[in-house]
Amino acid sequence: MKKSALILMISVFGLSYAQQQTKVLKTSFSKEALAQKLEDEEGKNITIQQILDHHKGKVLVIDFWAGWCRDCLKALPKAEELEKNNPNIDFVFLSLERSKEGFDKSLDRFNMKDKDNYWFATGWKNDFNNYIDLNWIPRYMVVDQKSSIAKYYAISPEDPEIQETINRLLK
């Protein structure tokens, strides 16, 4: 009896930390979220707005990840496949590494140097991540040609809605 109760408690407790889709699926970014600063590989500051402006007119997939995240590393081959299958789509990788050193090491270790990478030097809790309800990684978003959110919440690069959204935006 005690063993069953313990297993039940562990199961319930473990489920409370599982990724859960948010109830509100946003279609645009707040002013505060757009002002959020990140760092590029050289350590220069850039805002979310500047990143979106750089990709305006293109469909953009945003991939939230970190080298310490087991789920992210498991998803990496499928994320690379999604990128390879969509050569006309821009991809941006937003890292949640715990340090600049960790960011640099992960880019080298996982062959990410030739990609569009940025790091949240402010950590997980910031205006952008709070606005988009980032509660787990990996996470994927699709942004349309006008910088509006077309697919707000995906936890796997294999989510068919990512490709469906891309296809719909390219019509």
Give an account of the 3D structure:
- With 171 residues, the protein is an alpha/beta fold.
- It has a single domain, classed as Glutaredoxin.
- It has 7 helices and 7 strands.
- A 5-stranded mixed β-sheet has the order 5-4-3-6-7, covered by helices on one side. It has a two-stranded antiparallel ribbon with strand order 1-2.
- A hairpin with a 5-residue loop joins strand 1 and strand 2.
- It is globular.
- The N and C termini lie far apart (59 Å).
- About 8% of the residues have low confidence.
- Keywords: Signal.
- InterPro entries: Thioredoxin-like_fold, Thioredoxin-like_sf, Thioredoxin_domain, Thioredoxin_ResA/DsbE_sf.
- Pfam families: Thioredoxin_8.
